[in-house]
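**User:** You know discrete backbone vocabularies at least as well as I do. Would you mind producing a protein record, from residues through to fold? Write it directly below this note and I will take it from there.

**Assistant:**
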Amino acid sequence: MIETASINITRTPASRISELDYNNIEFGKIFADHMFMIDFVDGQWQTPQILPYGNLSLSPATSALHYGQAIFEGMKAYKDANGEVLLFRPVDNARRLNLSAERMCMPTLPEELFMQGLSELIQLDKDWVPPTPGTALYIRPFMFATDAFVGVRPSANYKFMIFCCPVGAYYANPLRVKIETDYTRSVEGGAGFAKAAGNYGASMLPSKLAQQQGYHQLIWTDGKEHKFLEESGTMNLMFVIDGKLITPALSTSILAGITRDSVLQLARDWGMPVEERQIAADEIIVAHANGTLQEAFGCGTAAVIAPIITIGYEGKDYDLPALETREFSNKVAAELDKIKTGEAPDLHNWMVRI
């Protein structure tokens, strides 16, 4: 159990959990009963509180709406065979939130406060963690600037919140992705490594254009040459080429994914060669041509392990090997699921029990 600090709690008068169909859970549409909230005022975090989930009242001049000081995280909670709730690497989310906060000139949140608020909220809404295989309680911590002021400057006041929603699979089917060589998600020295709201807003037009061409997502390339692969939509990228697991090296334009780190650790545990380095788009096409491109997949909190079945590049589609032949991604997806639900040993102490 995580010890919690004193948090003002107002319980919902009537739970909405009856709205939830555990056998038909859509991603991100039904929200749990409560939300955690704390304000940053006069240079200090104020008294935390948990309230019934509901709308916020904001000034039209709220700084985040105009100048983009908004960051977020994505996490999941799971149930084990005994019905106990487990969180996957939550401290890493707290640390990454603070990296994003520093980049966006926002206050950092003490890790202890993050964990205490999270623990109390999940404990209160633990019945919302679905028990069905392939499901989870998605957790959305986020922070935004709240100054009612029109002018480009860092806000003096902020609000940090957490809400939750039960979810099924983010991607129901294998992905068709397009290597993007016109639009840019981020550049070196930018904020691509932060989970900043603006990064996602800027990606929506090129993603929509790709979807109109029959693709599910984009593979972003570097902003300087549009030559090297970076990440894909809401995921980090992984390739298995000639028995090696290869992924783009982290930089200021690539998010340091927690699932990414977990996949790399498991691969090393199993003795698989791992390379974190630049990957040119042409290298992938050559590997496809000579038969050494064995697997491609995305990984992230929402998507977990999302197999890529087709890669589009310069007007041509390249189909990848059948899913049943993908030894590594199938194995790592199954192992992560087992670790998260307590069915496999947690050798790296990733899980936190609520």
User: Anything to note?
Assistant: The first strand starts at residue 8 and ends at 9.
